[in-house]
Structure formats: structure tokens, C-alpha cells
User: Which sequence fits this backbone?
């Protein structure tokens, strides 16, 4: 099993450009999450999904959109990138049970100039 | 609301000496607590979790944490640090909101000196 994978690993964007980050998991997990990690702030939840076809806002959703068309994939989109979105983005997934343990991808480092 | 506070942003120890990373939590309900570790330029890995069973929780790589309700603490310890323990450690609490997500502390960077 590959677990949780993220594409791409690195990306540099200019202000105003758009891009999509892809997260894929092969563990048949129901729940998937997108976080951003900034220095000294831990991880903050952007959006999440509790199943195929569903999405919901997290703590810091502004400037991002998501889609979950297939159970194994969770896409994070930036329609018009801003320097404040420079961050490391992590995807995670978990089962629908009570353990709440999340499995994380390796991260995508995004720089917006 | 649930939250965690990591009391030290940086901790430096010598190899072979004990490690103590401090975490206090706030939760309206019986908490589920976790410690995750992030090695440089890597994703996050679960070290251990507390889910209201034993108050002393053993994790991977010799780490353990003790849940103390009276002190609202969940400190992470290891008897003897190894160079490979150098990483960032996150104390995490389960969110009881509809998000069914995790709330992360700000992290503690552990440095291990030879």
C-alpha cells in the first residue's frame, strides 16, 4: 500500500495563478482532510470530506476550494494564488470509526511570489 | 472547544539524556489525545494516542505519555534520547465539532546534541 500520496511535492506560483493539489489514498478511508502548516502555528484545517461527493469548510477555508469526486481522491484548488498561501500543505485520511487516527501524506511545499 | 498548548517551542537535550515535551489540553468532553512526530521534510507520523483506556500510553521508538486529568496535561517522555529523535513534535486533541478533525498544538522542535 502506498498510503497517502500527494502531487506535486513542490510548486512555485506567481500571484494570481491557479493550481490544483492532488491527494490520493489507497486505504479505502471515508474521511479526508487538507491542512496547511505554517511556522509556529501547527497544522490548520482548510477543508475536509466525510465521504465521496461531500466537502465542508475547516478553520481556514478562504481562497481554497475542494472536490471529492472519487472516494480515493481529494483535490485542493487555489483559483487565484496569493503570497499568504505560501505554505506546506498536508493531506490526511482516516476511517469513519472512533480511533480518529489520521494518516498523513508527505506534503506539498507551495511558494507564491 | 478543544485546544492544546505546547509549553516549549524548542527543547535541546544531549544524546542519552531524558526527553520531556510538555502539553496541556483543554476539552469540554473526555479528550482523545495524540502525539505526532514530523522529521525534517517529511510527513507526520503517529507516535501514540490516548483514548480513555490506560493513563500511561506507550508509543513507538520508546516514547510514552501520561494523561493527567487533574493537571490537564499529556506530556511526552523518553528515558534516553537518540540522535534520530531530532524532529518536531505535535500534541493533538480530537475535535468534538462536526468536523470530526484534529486540533494541533504549535509544535515543539526537539534538538539532540551529540
Assistant:
Amino acid at each position: 500500500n502506498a498510503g497517502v500520496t500527494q502531487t506535486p511535492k513542490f510548486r512555485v506560483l506567481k500571484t494570481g495563478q491557479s493550481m490544483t493539489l492532488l491527494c490520493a489514498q489507497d486505504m479505502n478511508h471515508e474521511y479526508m482532510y487538507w491542512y496547511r502548516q505554517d511556522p509556529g502555528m501547527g497544522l490548520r484545517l482548510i477543508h475536509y470530506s466525510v465521504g465521496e461527493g461531500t466537502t465542508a469548510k475547516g478553520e481556514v477555508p478562504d481562497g481554497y476550494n475542494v472536490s471529492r469526486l472519487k472516494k480515493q481522491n481529494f483535490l485542493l484548488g487555489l483559483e487565484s494564488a496569493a503570497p499568504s498561501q505560501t505554505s506546506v500543505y498536508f493531506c490526511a485520511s482516516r476511517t469513519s470509526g472512533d480511533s480518529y487516527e489520521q494518516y498523513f501524506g508527505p506534503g506539498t511545499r507551495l511558494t507564491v511570489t | 472547544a478543544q485546544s492544546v498548548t505546547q509549553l516549549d517551542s524548542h527543547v535541546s537535550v544531549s544524546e542519552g539524556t531524558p526527553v520531556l515535551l510538555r502539553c496541556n489540553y483543554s476539552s469540554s468532553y473526555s479528550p482523545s489525545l495524540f502525539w505526532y512526530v514530523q522529521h525534517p521534510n517529511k510527513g507526520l507520523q503517529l507516535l501514540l494516542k490516548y483514548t480513555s483506556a490506560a493513563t500511561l500510553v506507550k508509543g513507538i521508538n520508546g516514547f510514552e505519555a501520561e494523561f493527567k486529568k487533574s493537571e490537564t496535561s499529556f506530556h511526552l517522555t523518553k528515558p534516553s534520547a537518540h540522535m534520530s529523535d531530532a524532529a518536531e513534535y505535535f500534541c493533538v486533541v480530537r475535535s468534538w465539532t462536526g468536523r470530526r478533525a484534529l486540533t494541533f498544538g504549535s509544535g515543539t522542535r526537539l534538538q539532540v546534541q551529540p
